[in-house]
Every structure is written in C-alpha cells, then in structure tokens.
Amino acid sequence: MQPEDKSVEILPAGVSFLICTYNSVSRIGETLNRLAQQVVKPGIPWEVILVDNACTDGTSEQAEAHWKQLGTTIPLRLYKEPRPGKNFAVKLAFSQARYQYACIVDDDNRLAPDYLQIGFDLLESNPRVAIVGGQNVGSFEVPPPSWFPLFQANYAVGVPIYKAGKNVQPLPDGNIGANILWGAGMFVRLKLWRELEHLNFKSLFAGRQGTKTLTAGEDDELCYVAQLLGYEVWYCSSLKLEHYMTANRLTTDYRNRLYYSPVWAASRLGAYRSALMKRDAEQSTPTLNLIKDFLYMSWGAFRQILSLRYAKALLTNDIMILMSSKQQIMTVINYVMNFADIIDYYKIVEEFKSKVKYILRK
After folding, report:
1. Which residues contact 56 (CB under 8 A, 6 or more apart)?
2. Which of 296, 281, 264 is nearest to 350 (CA)?
3. CATH assignment of 15-260, given 3.40.920.10, 3.30.300.130, 3.90.550.10, 1.10.600.10?
4. Which residues are in the Glycosyltransferase 2-like domain (predicted)?
C-alpha cells in the first residue's frame, strides 16, 4: 500500500494500532488475534497499521492472510519500510494513522480485550494527556529461568518503575512527572506527533535494528519530549498486556546484552532529563549542565564500587549488584569516550526546548 499525505487532515476520534515489525512470522498471528478480540463501544472507529521493517521472512504476507482468516471488518493496512530501525517504521506508521489516538503495539504484545476502550476513554477525557501506558505481564515460549524476576524490568515486564532517592518504586496511577513508561502498548495523541513534525523535531535515536543491536530509547525520548511541550504523561494500571518472550530472549547472553544496552542510550536520555530540570538559566549552559551531570553520575558509580555492599556482593556473587555496578562504570566510560558528541546532544535538546518556549509564548 502506498503512503497517503495526511499532514493537514483533521482526524476523527478513534484509535490506530501501529505495529512495526521485523521478522515476526512465528508470533504475529497471536498479536493480531488479541487485536481482533478488542471489545469496543459502538461508534468508536479503529484500525490496524502494520509496517514491515525490512522483514525477510514473509511477515506482512502472513499477517494479511491471518487477518482475513479472522473475518473481522476492522481494516488492516500494510506498508513496507526498507530502512532498518524502528524509528523509521514508527514515522511511517504515524504518518498513515487515520484517527486522533495511536497505540504502539510491538509484534510480541498481546493486549487485553478492554485495552482500546480504556486508552480511548482516558485520552478523550484528559486533553492535556499526550501519552498513556500500562503494565505488562510476561508470557513465555519456555519456562522462564530462575533469574528472570530480578531482570523483568529490563524486559518491560511488570509495573513501570522509577527511582525515589536510593529506592526503586512502582509508578502510581496518573501523571508520572519526569518519568517514563514502557513503550509496549503506549497510547500517543496524534496531535503531539503532528506538533513534533511542525517543529522539525529530530530524534537522537535510530531505534532498535532487528537483532543487530539492543540499544533503543525512542520510547523514553517521546515521553520526555511530550513533557517539554507541556503535555502530561500518564500511567494507567488498568491497561494490561502480555509481553511474549521466545526462548532465545531468555538466555544469559541476551539478558546481559539487554541489561547493558542502556549504557549507550544514557547520554541522549540524560540530555532530556537535564532539559526538564529547573536550573538557574543564568548559570546553565549545555556544557555546564553536562559536566554537573557527569560528575554526579561518576561520584555515584565510584561510591557504589567502594561500598561495603559491593564488597559483600563480590563475596556472595550477588549478580544484580555486580551487574548494576558494571553498568554504571560502563556509562561513565562511555561519557568520557564520547564527551564531544554528548555535548552536542545537550545542545540539540536545549535548542529544541528554547524553540518550544518561544512558540508557546507567541
């Protein structure tokens, strides 16, 4: 299907499910089954948009045939994005959405039957909310390993979490402040996306590229950018989906790659967190802010490895503490090795923030 130009169209209230997929022929069927089972009040239109992101296994053909077998009257529209990287596919999917609200559905997500209705109602009744997300339950091709509960947050399973001082807490319902949601199943108001296009927003991320790299971050970035534009981002515990994991994702090698992948996203996301902080404008420049953030982060990392807690972890082989400490040190090293590039990230985000402030004042 050829993309349509929707840059100036006023969209009706409804939901566009956006599936951006890479080689998911073995799992796309159940994802579509759960979408077809959505229970929706009469009069709410919706659709499914599937973007084949450089697939080589016939995913889109399988999806089209499976959707026809389901016999639903809801349209499934297929597009192809040959450039690897989720961000490219997401852009194409958003550009083709025909309704005011989009829901980003990964090809391993299995939504509860009331998912659409809950998200639609929340966005309809809260016009300042641009993004809504929920909680995920893990489902598995094989029994999960004993270590999985410790690492489930890295797999986007459970309730999204945030740091409260030294502790990690589950997000409460409602406005999450300067925090982030799981990207899987995230609702996005199309108005936000259109505003970003109007502002000529350029993502700092290329998005995860199939199995080549596990470094992502575009979902977190979208949460931060929405807040820079003055919107609210909400968590809703009633939104529930299953996050299906194949056996190859439950190996220690994959787990470790996934756990350390935020190292390379940290500097870019750090630029957004810095921009969201209330700092004295007269004593704040991108370079100075980066130096402050780097020193604070470095002190935390080195304090961790010099702590009694870390010494005990070495003796008892406490894998969670050891890996957490290693991740912190890797992040510090990445900042040092790429300091010039990271300064550019901070400058780009601060320039975008200034642009938004100028437009909002007009």
Report:
1. 23
2. 281
3. 3.90.550.10
4. 16-138
Residue 243: predicted pLDDT? 97
What does the block give as tokens for 204?
């700092």
Round to whole Å and give the CA distance between 275 and 261. 23
Asked if residues 189 and 129 have their Cβ atoms less than 8 Å apart, the reply is yes
CA dist., res. 91 & res. 51, Å (int): 10
Give the DSSP per-residue string, 11-64: PPS-EEEEEEESS-TTTHHHHHHHHHT----TT--EEEEEEEES-SS-HHHHHH
Tokens 């259109």 belong to 194
Give the other-Cβ count within 10 Å of 64's Cβ. 15
Distances from the Cα of 236 to the Cα of 11, 37, 51, 124, angstroms:
25, 21, 27, 14
d(CA 148, CA 204): 30
Could you report the per-residue pLDDT of 169-213, keeping only the tens digit for each?
999 999 999 899 999 999 999 999 999 999 999 999 865 544 445
Burial of 330 (0-12, 13-18, 19+ CB in 10 A): middle
Q: Which residue has the tokens 């901070």?
A: 346
- Predicted confidence at residue 8, as pLDDT, reads 44
Relative to beta strand 109-111, strand 161-164 is unpaired
DSSP assignment, residue 153?
A: G
pLDDT score for 211 = 46
Whose structure tokens read 């790429």?
338
